[in-house]
Amino acid sequence: MYGFHSGSARGVHINVGGLLDGGPGASNGDAAQALTPDMMDDFTAAEIATDATTIFVRSHGSGPPILLLHGFPQTQLMWRSVAPLLARDFTVVCADLRGYGRSGCPASAADHAPYAKRTMAHDMVTVMERLGFSHFAVAGHDRGGRVAYRMALDHPDRVERLAVLDILPVETVWERADERLVLGYWPWSLLAQPQPLPERILAAVPDAVIDDVLGGWGSPASAFPPEVRIAYVEALRDSAHAHAICEEYRAAATIDREHDRADRAAGRRIACPLLVLWAAQGALDTWYIEESGPIALWQAWADDVQGRALRAGHFFPEEAPVQTAEALSRFFGAPKGRD
Length: 339
Prior knowledge:
alpha/beta, Rossmann fold, nine-stranded mixed β-sheet, 16 helices, 9 strands, 40% helix
């Protein structure tokens, strides 16, 4: 019943050599991607065509399907230690969001809609459908978590369970934004500035960007092996990807907020069970104490909410992969209440 449907799936292009060794059609980040740790060697690489772009995925395992989505400044490589653990019991799909990693960078628009979380969520629904999965669970970290909750709101018939890692909804963050967000999590404000300033910064000094982010959000440098750091740096060097990432942040400051407000005004809520995990050494554990913390804030968006802090920094899937995999496996393995 479960498994990776690759050979005849419409829109799925298996091209392991070109994707991993810098072969024809490869982007600037391919040389770094070839340094993927051995633990991902069993995963099948593919490019999947959606309505407007292509999405790069790695998949492996058998059992109920789980989609894993990364954050900034990462790629699907962030799941390198978590995904193999989950693949013992699940079919795991790790995807690069549009504009990130090996995925395509379609043209944007004045309203930034091509990089809205709604559009990115639609990409992922298409990806899973073309892999043969009409229903699935999804876990997203950072930016990927915001794509994931938007997917659950827009496609409640597809998402069976949802896990969000170290995030709050976009509008919730902006409503409570203060100097801590602007200074501590500067991509929210800097990358949302009009082009070309943020694009030029990302492309000109990707090393400095990666080192500041990876070193400044509570996780130790040891969580990121040299080859992984190189992969993240190379992913930012490409000007098309730098622009796409900035467009995603511009969408978060504008159209994503509009979508959240519209859902709230209409009373739309996340229907599936929701797991909220956050960093005990991060912002979510301390910034929102007066509002009873992340669980209470997510209860404004969903009825079935559970969660806890993990003893790590913001990048806990890389810093504490066993903790992360155990928490996700326990949640996704629980009865879904479906026939």
